[in-house]
Amino acid sequence: MQSKLSHLSKDEIDLLIKQYYNGEKIRLLIDEFKIDTKTTSLHKLFPPTICETLYCPYCDNVNLVSSYKSRNDFNRKSTPFCPDCEHIHNSDCECVNCRKYISYLAKLKTDKQKKLITEKCSSMFIAPCAVRDLSFETAVYLMSLTRHLISEDLKFAFPFVKIHTKLAPSFEFLKQMHESLRKQGIISLSPQSKTESFTYNEDITAITSYSALRAQWELLSSFSKQEKKAYIKELEEVIASDNWPEHWHIESNKLWHSIALHECLEYLTYLLERRQFPIEDFGEKTITTFETLLKRFSIAQIFNLSWQSIRDTGDFLRQKMIPHSQAQSVFTGILLRKVDRALAQKWIVRDGGRDFNCAQSVVSKTLFNLFLKLGDAVLTMRVPELNERNTERPS
User: Fold this and answer.
1) Which superkingdom (predicted)?
2) Distance between CA 224 and CA 128 in Å, rounded?
C-alpha cells in the first residue's frame, strides 16, 4: 500500500476508490480523507487489484495485478502485470523475460531449420562427373562460374541472383544453368544457406520448398581445394585442346542456339522496357517466331529487325489507339510481316549491335570467346542448324 494511504483502513480505501469513480470532486476527496497528493495523482495511490486466476509465467506463484487508471480513461484498470518482473499479460509485452523467451524461441526455430537444411543438403548430394563426362553446357557453365561466382577459396558458388555481373541472358536461362550444374554434381546445396531461402511446414519438421537461385551452393563440395584446382585445370586443358569429348561437338550447337534465342528475347525485353511497354512472360508464339528467325538470320540482324519492329509497334499503337498492354502481341505480327517482306523482296537486312545497356552475359562470352573462339564475329554469323549427326567442331 502507498504510504500516503497508510492512515486509512481497507474499508476507507474501498470507499475512497468507489467515490472517486462515482465522480466525486477529487479535491474534496483529498481533503476529506486527508491525503497529501495532487488531484491528477490520486488514482496512482490506489493499491492494485490482485488477479486471483492469473499467474506470472516467469515468477513462481506470483499473481498478476491490475493498477487503477484515471477515471477519464476508457478502461479503469490496466492490463494485468507482474509486480515483481513487470511482465504484462498480452502478446505485445516487451519485458526482459519476454524478450529472452522470444530470443529463445527464435534460436530454437533457427536450430530446427538448420538441422533440416543439413539433412536436405545430404540427401541431395551428387558426386561430380569426371571432366570428360561433363555435358558441354555444364562445362561452359562451370567456366562461367569460375570467372564471376566462385569465392576466393573455391568453396562457394554465391547465390545466383545476387551478383552484380549479368551471368545469363534471362532468368529462365539462369535456372537452366543451375539445374545443369546441380545434376552433374558440380554444385551442391550448402548447409550454410540462409534459412530464409527455404520454406517449411507449420511445425518445422520438413522443408516444403526452397529458392535454388537464392540459396548458397558449394563448388565440388566433396573435393579438397587442391582437387578443385586440378579439376578446373583439367577442364581448361580439354577446352584448349583439339581433343574434345565426342558429345561436345554435337551439344555445342544446341547451346549456341539456346543462348542466341535467349539473347534475342533479352533484347526484346530491353526494347519493351525502353518504351515503357508492359512485359509479360514470353509465350510459344514469340519463342517460335525467334526460333524461325534464327534459321534465316544472324543475331545481329534479328536485333535490327526487332528494333525496327518495336519502333513500328509504338507508331501502330498510337495510330490505332490500341492499349499498350497489347504491345507484345502487336510486335510479333509486325516482326513477321517485316521478315516476310524482306525475304520476298530479297532485301539485305543490316546488322544491329549490342546495346551498352543490354550487355553480353558472362555465359555468352564464355561460350563464344573461350570455347568456340568466335569473339564478336558470332553476332553476324548464322546459328548452326541443330543436327545431332553433325559432329564437326564449330569454326
Assistant:
1) Bacteria
2) 13
